[in-house]
Write a structure and sequence with these properties.
Elements lengths: L1 H7 L11 H11 L4 H14 L3 H7 L1 H7 L7 H17 L7 H5 L6 H11 L9 H12 L5 H11 L5 H14 L18 H5 L23 H14 L2 E2 L3 H5 L5 H13 L3 E3 L6 E4 L1
Helix pairs in contact: 1-11, 2-3, 2-6, 2-8, 4-6, 5-6, 9-10, 9-11, 13-15
């Protein structure tokens, strides 16, 4: 894997840094968002918010506005919240401790491990969907829970080579051992791949993993209406009577009110005191 990664590792801007803030920004952006979309926003975001202190001072609304095109706007709010905690509690210095990182808003087990592995080069293996595919198909030959996959990844990790090994595993899953039509002829693990030895016509071990689930359809969902409303708010405040139209449900004001209330409750937006009442980003 180390030899393959040295030749095939993708040239991505967040791999040219060990700054934990820049690593955290990339990891939050990459959650359920394609690399190509993140590439278009990563540098602009860091030009605007080069440090946690600058991000914290800017306020959540400014972060949400610059999050356009990345989807899942709640992640922008979490990132601002993490910046605020790092600034207030740690003086802008990132904690190099998994427990402290997981206490930050929006930072779960995977993201904490990714920051430690890629910023601090700690000997730990973050397991995302791409790595899970490699582990289940090539190594285990069966579906794995997150806990079992994490234990296996940590066992395989070569001491002192965490950064290189993890990046190679990410790239193998993203570019070769893909969800559809894996390119087995290009895989450096093809000789020992458990799925290949069992016959590629057999059930895909990755799809047997408990964490691999089909997401509910986006079209027509509250998530879609919420995204439309946030997109409208990035440009101008939205009057209450225009909420339904902004969400794309002109005949369902009650549903739009519910989505607007969720934005207010989560700190994305707030109502103005004037008349008419306007919903605006915080």
């Amino acid at each position: 894997m180390l030899e393959w990664g040295a030749v095939h590792r993708r040239d991505l801007p967040w791999r040219a840094t060990r700054d934990p803030w820049r690593v955290l920004v990339s990891e939050v952006m990459l959650q359920q968002t394609q690399v190509e979309r993140v590439l278009a926003s990563y540098r602009d975001f860091l030009d605007a918010f080069p440090t946690p202190e600058v991000c914290a001072r800017a306020g959540p609304g400014a972060v949400v506005r610059l999050w356009s095109g990345l989807g899942y706007n709640r992640r922008a709010l979490h990132l601002h919240g993490a910046a605020a905690v790092i600034t207030a509690q740690y003086g802008g210095i990132f904690p190099a401790d998994e427990k402290a990182l997981r206490a930050l808003p929006g930072v779960g087990p995977y993201t904490a491990r990714a920051v430690l592995a890629f910023a601090f080069e700690a000997d730990m293996a973050p397991v995302d969907t791409n790595v899970l595919r490699v582990l289940t198909r090539c190594i285990a030959g069966e579906g794995l829970s997150v806990r079992r996959a994490q234990a296996l990844a940590d066992h395989l990790l070569p001491s002192g080579r965490s950064w290189e090994f993890n990046q190679a595993m990410f790239d193998l899953g993203a570019t070769v051992c893909t969800a559809a039509r894996p390119q087995c002829a290009r895989c450096p693990l093809r000789a020992q791949c458990a799925w290949r030895r069992a016959g590629l016509g057999s059930a895909d071990p990755w799809r047997a993993s408990p964490s691999v689930r089909t997401q509910a359809p986006f079209a027509g969902s509250d998530r879609q209406g919420r995204g439309r409303l946030v997109a409208a708010l990035r440009h101008d405040p939205v009057p209450r009577e225009m909420l339904a139209s902004a969400c794309g449900w002109p005949d369902d004001q009650a549903r739009a009110e519910r989505v607007a209330a969720s934005l207010v409750n989560e700190g994305f937006a707030d109502w103005t005191d004037g008349r008419p009442a306007l919903l605006q980003l915080c």
